[in-house]
C-alpha cells in the first residue's frame, strides 16, 4: 500500500528534472548530424538562464523514480576533513602540475626540503631532481600508500603539503561558459587519443574530443574536494536522467558514471538540487572550484551536451 510520501516523491523528481531541462532548453540547442559523434554541437544564446537563477517546469510525463544508489555529488555527510590544495603555512610548492627525474628549479628544491623534513632524503637541496631524489620520492610514495612511479604530481604533492593553489591552474574563458575548437584551452599532456572525454583535476576543466583529436567542446566543472577521482583511463558504464546522492539529500540530473567507489559512483552531472526544495547547491560562478563530494558538476548547458556526447562505453581520461 502506498503512502502520501510515495505520491510526493515522483512529483519531486519530476519537478527537479523539469527545472533542469527547461533551464537548459532556454539557451541550449543540442544537435547530432548524421555523421559521427564529432558533429555533436551545442550553442548558447545571450538569454541563457542560469540554474542559479531558478527555473520552474511542469512534471515530465513518464519519469521513473530513481533508486537511492549511492552517487556522490553533494557536500553534506561526506568525509569530515578537506585536503587543502596549498601549504597551510604559505610555504613553497612544486609550482607545476608534476615534476620528475631531470626536472630542475625551485619546485624541486621545495620537494627535496619536504622529503628531508619527513626523513626520506638526506642529499643536497640543490633543485636537481636526480637519482637520489627519485629514490626518496619512490620510498615516500610506497610509505604513503601512493602509486609508486617517482613522479610528484597532485597526490604526492598534497601528501607532502607542497601542492600549489589550484586556482592558478584554472583557465576561465569568456561567456558562454564553454568554448569550442581553437578557442578552447589546450588539452593536458598525456590525456589519451581518439574519441574521449578528458577531465583535468588541477584545472577543473573537461574536454570532449572527437575521433580525429579535434576539441569539440571544453568547459569548467566543479570537482571533488576530497581527491577521490582516480587518475587514469575509465569507461562510462551507466547513465541516469535523474539520480540521487548516496544519502538521498540531492538530485543529480543527467548522471554519467565512470568510476565506482566503496560508497557509490563518481561521474558527470548537472548542478545538483536539494531534494527538499529543488534549490541548486551552487551557482555557475563557482564552476572551477572544488566543492563536490566526488562528482563533476556542470553548467546545465554543458550537462546537456555531455548527455548527448557520452554514451555508455565512452572513454573518460582523468589527469
Summarize the structure.
With 319 residues, the protein is α+β, with helices and mostly antiparallel strands. 21% of the residues lie in helices and 19% in strands.
Q: How is this structure best described in words?
A:
The chain is α+β, with helices and mostly antiparallel strands and 319 residues long. The protein has two domains: 4-80 and 169-318, L,D-transpeptidase catalytic domain-like (Beta Barrel); 106-164, PGBD-like superfamily/PGBD (Muramoyl-pentapeptide Carboxypeptidase, domain 1, Orthogonal Bundle), CATH 1.10.101.10. It has helices spanning 4-27, 106-117, 131-143, 154-160, 300-309; strands at 28-31, 41-44, 196-200, 205-209, 215-220, 232-235, 238-244, 250-260, 265-270, 273-274, 296-298, 315-318. The strands form three sheets. Strands 5-4-3-12-6 form a five-stranded mixed beta sheet, with helices on one face. Strands 7, 8, 9, 10 and 11 form a five-stranded mixed beta sheet that branches. A two-stranded antiparallel ribbon has the order 1-2. A hairpin with a 5-residue loop joins strand 7 and strand 8 (250-260). The longest helix is centred in the N-terminal third of the chain and has 24 residues, at 4-27. The protein is globular, with a radius of gyration of 21 Å. The protein starts with a helix and ends with a strand. Residues 1-12 and 20-89 have low confidence and may be disordered.
Amino acid at each position: 500500500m502506498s503512502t502520501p510520501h510515495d505520491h510526493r516523491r515522483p512529483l519531486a523528481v519530476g519537478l527537479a528534472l523539469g527545472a533542469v531541462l527547461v533551464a537548459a532548453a532556454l539557451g541550449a540547442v543540442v544537435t547530432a548530424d548524421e555523421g559521427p559523434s564529432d558533429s555533436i554541437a551545442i550553442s548558447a544564446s545571450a538569454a541563457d538562464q542560469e540554474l542559479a537563477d531558478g527555473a520552474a517546469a511542469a512534471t515530465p510525463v513518464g519519469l521513473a523514480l530513481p533508486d537511492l544508489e549511492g552517487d556522490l555529488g553533494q557536500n553534506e555527510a561526506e568525509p569530515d576533513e578537506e585536503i587543502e590544495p596549498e601549504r597551510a603555512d604559505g610555504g613553497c610548492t612544486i609550482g607545476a602540475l608534476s615534476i620528475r627525474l631531470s626536472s630542475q628549479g625551485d619546485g624541486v628544491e621545495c620537494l627535496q626540503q619536504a622529503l628531508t623534513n619527513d626523513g626520506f632524503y638526506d642529499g643536497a637541496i640543490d633543485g636537481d631532481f636526480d637519482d637520489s631524489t627519485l629514490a626518496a620520492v619512490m620510498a615516500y610514495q610506497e610509505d604513503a600508500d601512493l602509486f609508486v612511479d617517482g613522479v610528484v604530481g597532485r597526490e604526492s604533492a598534497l601528501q607532502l603539503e607542497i601542492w600549489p593553489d589550484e586556482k592558478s591552474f584554472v583557465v576561465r574563458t569568456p561567456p558562454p561558459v564553454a568554448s569550442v575548437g581553437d578557442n578552447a584551452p589546450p588539452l593536458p599532456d598525456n590525456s589519451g587519443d581518439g574519441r574521449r572525454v578528458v577531465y583535468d583535476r588541477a584545472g577543473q576543466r573537461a574536454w570532449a574530443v572527437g575521433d580525429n583529436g579535434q576539441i569539440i567542446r571544453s568547459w569548467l566543472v566543479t570537482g571533488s574536494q576530497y581527491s577521490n577521482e582516480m587518475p587514469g583511463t575509465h569507461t562510462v558504464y551507466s547513465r541516469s536522467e535523474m539520480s540521487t546522492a548516496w544519502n538521498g539529500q540531492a538530485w543529480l540530473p543527467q548522471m554519467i558514471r565512470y568510476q565506482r567507489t566503496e560508497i557509490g559512483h563518481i561521474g558527470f552531472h548537472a548542478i545538483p538540487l536539494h531534494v527538499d526544495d529543488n534549490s541548486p547547491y551552487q551557482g555557475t560562478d563557482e564552476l572551477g572550484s572544488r566543492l563536490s563530494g566526488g562528482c563533476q558538476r556542470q553548467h546545465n548547458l554543458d550537462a546537456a551536451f555531455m548527455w548527448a556526447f557520452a554514451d555508455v562505453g565512452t572513454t573518460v581520461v582523468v589527469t
